[in-house]
């Protein structure tokens, strides 16, 4: 292995792109041009190829480099998973490992870095591979760096990367370089285009910016601010203030995205002087390269840095206004009320049937030629995007990765509509004007623009976010979920996250009716983990950055017996209080580790996912269970929160010891706690009248759990039917100081109002009490 496969930016120029990738070569070129580039180094694509050679898998990978025509999405996913595992299992050669670490140490001791994939054809003039391969930010430490490099290698074989190679006609041997760059602790960041990506006008700079790291802009996770600057005098022509709900804070955000304070969400990210400073640097980059540039920037403590640049790949000749649009029934866009308006991100028009997709798993519902309407289309949707006639999303900005890919596919694209998935009906015929950023009902000829599209609707007054009326509560209101099907719909509701993600339906779906022990025997666990992770990821992505608490499998032995191969289960007379939950994990750790594998895979991308252990009875079994978690890579993830369910009355005694074990929170399962406190089978119709979660004995147990959690420094929630259907229980919990409640989605709205009313009542009672204690004047 040639150690020279690793080199610093100082020694790289554009001519090095075939070995080090377009991204790395551009950073070297920018460094040489004197632009403000944070230091770093690059690992050549030959290092990847030589490692695959040494591992004996290069020929196999070359054979499967591009998926053949007609491959179904399921077949593509399965092949991708197999090839990814093949790459992940290859050992990194020792000389390469040592060279990478030597260059990393030269940047400083355990300095945070960004680790980005850089394909040889990436950032070229005709393809961008925008967002196709993985990148990782805020990577700290030598082991984490090596792991991130390996993940970049693996991303060469993701479904979206394989699909992109097919649609772009890239048939060469796939290879990938990796760029490692000192992290800029971005206060604000974004992207600058030195030509308008929607209209191809070259006399202005279009800048998008948001708070925190730039991933929220290029990943389409927020509606960013958009500034348009005249190149001739650097005058700010327009400043559209977006609604920036979330951000990523480098080094201080364990779970990825965090909420932006409400008072900042609709304030400007950059002032006029900062906008001009970005425009100057972007124009300097364009002057150096001699072609319009797409440049990523960041401000750290007031200092401007450029972290990446590449040619704009999607500029087109703008058609005269009179030539745009479908003639159809002859109606003009000027005579028709638009359904929704957003940011035109891909020029052109298209008319067709709308297909509203709420999650990636529904992609098969989109027929070729239909118009995709979604909350957001990140690069994972690429196999679906290529079938769409046009793309319309609720979120994102004109420079997000998905918008770039949509433009490369030649599709009209509108982003940031905020309400397309609710205002456009599934199956409805619509016309998309991607130049003006408008969607019309029916077949419409878009009206000729009165002004350049870059200025249409760009003033803050024209696009000020509508006021949302909601009850603000100190007590969080979570939801209980069981399947990914409703994730997108429920995530759009006024809820604070998922307090209970039941594993049982995900598990049985992934098992396809087969007992997990049978899968292990047949060597099919990898597919099982993949299926589980896919379902969990759908939910985690929908709620990100809000927390999602995954409750590990709590199937009882009688339910496991119903699966193919379930005869291995013992027949229990009372499985409700038998072989289940925490105790089962201690006896069958191999099955439990499969769940941990799935969670670890999802947390690589969605840091809002956490673990909850159900049906904990004693301290020793919990300790044994946590030892299994600690011995798994998931347990070494410092951002992971670990909860337990409080369903067994013994939890009252053990809470202080559970806290000492490192548990972060407790969730009261009111149904099981009620049945075990009152000795009533909750499934018994004969004894139904005895089952009462408001029984004083049950309430006393709940009160003790809340009090002991407060004493032990633990958060405490309650999930179950009681909080969903009984306002009196919800109010009782608030008065006792519960941290959160988790209810069924259909009761979330009423529970929020109940909680708000209880909190106001508590404040009013306190005020009255204070008044009574005050001496009369």
Which CATH class of the largest domain?
Alpha Beta
Content-based structural category: alpha/beta
Question: What amount of the residues lies in strands?
Answer: 15-25%
Rounded mean pLDDT is 82
Number of strands: 29
The fold-level CATH name of the largest domain is TIM Barrel
Q: Nearest-angstrom radius of gyration?
A: 28 Å
Number of helices: 26
Q: Please give the share of residues in helix.
A: 25-40%
Give me a quick take on this structure.
The chain is of the alpha/beta class. The chain folds into four domains: 3-182, Dna Ligase, domain 1 (2-Layer Sandwich); 188-311, 2-Layer Sandwich (D-amino Acid Aminotransferase, Chain A, domain 1); 321-455, 3-Layer(bba) Sandwich (Glucose Oxidase, domain 1); 476-768, TIM Barrel (Alpha-Beta Barrel).
Description:
With 777 residues, this protein is of the alpha/beta class. The chain folds into four domains: 3-182, Dna Ligase, domain 1 (2-Layer Sandwich), CATH 3.30.1490; 188-311, 2-Layer Sandwich (D-amino Acid Aminotransferase, Chain A, domain 1), CATH 3.30.470.20; 321-455, Phosphohistidine domain (Glucose Oxidase, domain 1); 476-768, Phosphoenolpyruvate-binding domains (TIM Barrel, Alpha-Beta Barrel), CATH 3.20.20. It contains 26 helices and 29 strands. An eight-stranded mixed β-sheet has the order 14-21-20-16-17-18-19-15. The chain has an eight-stranded parallel β-barrel with strand order 22-23-24-25-26-27-28-29, surrounded by eight helices. Strands 9-8-7-6-12-13 form a six-stranded antiparallel β-sheet. Helix 14 packs antiparallel against helix 16 (525-543), helix 16 packs across helix 19 and helix 18 (581-587) crosses helix 20. The model is unreliable at 123-130, 317-330 and 447-469 (pLDDT under 50).
């Amino acid at each position: 292995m040639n150690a020279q496969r690793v080199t610093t930016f100082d020694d790289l120029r554009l001519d090095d792109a075939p070995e080090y990738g377009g991204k790395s070569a551009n950073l070297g070129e920018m460094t040489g041009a004197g632009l403000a580039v944070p230091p770093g180094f690059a690992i050549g694509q030959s290092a990847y190829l030589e490692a695959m050679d040494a591992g004996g898998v290069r020929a196999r990978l070359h054979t499967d480099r591009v998926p053949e025509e007609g491959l179904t999405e399921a077949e593509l996913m399965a092949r991708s998973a197999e090839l990814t595992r093949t790459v992940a299992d290859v050992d990194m050669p020792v000389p390469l490992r040592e060279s990478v670490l030597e260059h990393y140490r030269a940047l400083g001791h355990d300095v945070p870095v960004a680790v980005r994939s850089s394909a040889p054809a990436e950032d070229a003039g005709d393809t961008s591979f925008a967002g196709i391969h993985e990148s990782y930010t805020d990577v700290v430490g030598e082991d984490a760096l090596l792991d991130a490099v390996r993940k970049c290698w693996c991303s060469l074989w993701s479904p979206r990367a394989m699909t992109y190679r097919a649609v772009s006609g890239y048939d060469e041997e796939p290879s990938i370089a990796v760029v490692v760059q000192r992290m800029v602790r971005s206060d604000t960041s974004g992207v600058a285009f030195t030509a308008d990506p929607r209209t191809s006008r070259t006399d202005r700079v279009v800048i998008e910016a948001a708070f925190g790291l730039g991933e929220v802009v290029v990943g389409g996770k927020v509606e960013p601010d958009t500034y348009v600057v005249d190149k001739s005098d650097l005058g700010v022509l327009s400043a559209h203030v977006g609604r920036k709900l979330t951000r990523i804070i480098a080094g201080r955000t364990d779970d990825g995205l965090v909420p932006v304070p409400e008072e900042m969400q609709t304030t400007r990210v950059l002032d006029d002087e900062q906008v001009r400073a970005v425009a100057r640097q972007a124009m300097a980059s364009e002057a150096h390269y001699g072609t319009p540039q797409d440049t990523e920037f960041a401000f750290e403590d007031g200092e401007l840095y450029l972290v990446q640049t590449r040619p704009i790949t999607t500029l087109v000749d703008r058609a005269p206004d009179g030539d745009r649009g479908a003639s159809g029934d002859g109606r003009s866009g000027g005579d028709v009320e638009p359904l929704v308006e957003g940011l035109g991100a891909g020029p052109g028009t298209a008319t067709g049937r709308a297909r509203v997709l709420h999650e990636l798993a529904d992609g098969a519902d989109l027929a070729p030629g239909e118009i995709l309407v979604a909350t957001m289309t990140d690069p994972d949707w690429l196999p679906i995007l290529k079938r769409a006639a046009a793309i319309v999303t609720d979120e994102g900005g004109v420079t997000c990765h998905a918008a770039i890919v949509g433009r490369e596919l030649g599709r009209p694209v509108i982003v940031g509509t905020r309400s397309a998935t609710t205002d456009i009906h599934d199956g409805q015929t619509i016309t998309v004007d991607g130049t003006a950023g408008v969607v019309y009902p029916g077949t419409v000829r878009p009206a000729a623009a009165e002004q350049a599209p870059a200025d249409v609707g760009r003033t803050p007054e024209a696009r000020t976010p509508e006021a949302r009326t909601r009850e603000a509560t100190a007590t969080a209101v979570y939801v209980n979920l069981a399947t990914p099907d409703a994730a997108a719909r429920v995530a759009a509701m006024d809820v604070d996250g998922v307090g209970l993600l039941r594993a049982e339906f995900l598990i049985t779906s992934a098992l396809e009716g087969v007992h997990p022990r049978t899968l292990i025997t047949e060597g099919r666990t990898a597919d099982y983990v993949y299926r589980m992770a896919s379902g969990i990821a759908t939910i985690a992505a929908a709620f990100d950055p809000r927390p999602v608490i995954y409750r590990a499998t709590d199937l009882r032995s009688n339910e496991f017996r119903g699966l193919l191969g379930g005869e291995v289960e013992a027949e229990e007379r009372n499985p409700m209080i038998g072989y289940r939950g925490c105790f089962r994990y201690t006896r069958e750790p191999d099955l439990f580790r499969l769940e941990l594998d799935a969670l670890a895979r999802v947390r690589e991308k969605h840091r809002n996912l956490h673990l909850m252990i159900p049906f904990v009875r004693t301290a020793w079994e919990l300790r044994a269970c946590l030892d299994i978690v600690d011995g798994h890579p998931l347990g070494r993830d410092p951002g992971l929160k670990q909860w337990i369910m409080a369903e067994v009355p013994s939890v009252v005694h053990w809470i202080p010891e559970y806290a000492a074990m490192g548990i972060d929170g407790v969730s009261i399962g009111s149904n099981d706690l009620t049945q075990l406190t009152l000795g009533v089978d909750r499934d018994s119709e004969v004894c139904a009248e005895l089952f009462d979660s408001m029984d004083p004995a049950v309430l006393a147990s709940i009160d003790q759990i809340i009090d002991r959690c407060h004493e032990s420094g633990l958060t405490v929630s309650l999930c179950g039917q009681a909080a969903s259907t009984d306002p009196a229980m919800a109010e009782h919990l608030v008065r006792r100081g519960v941290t959160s409640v988790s209810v069924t989605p259909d009761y979330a709205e009423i529970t929020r109002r109940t909680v708000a009313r209880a909190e106001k009542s508590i404040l009013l009672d306190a005020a009255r009490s204070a008044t009574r204690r005050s001496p009369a004047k």
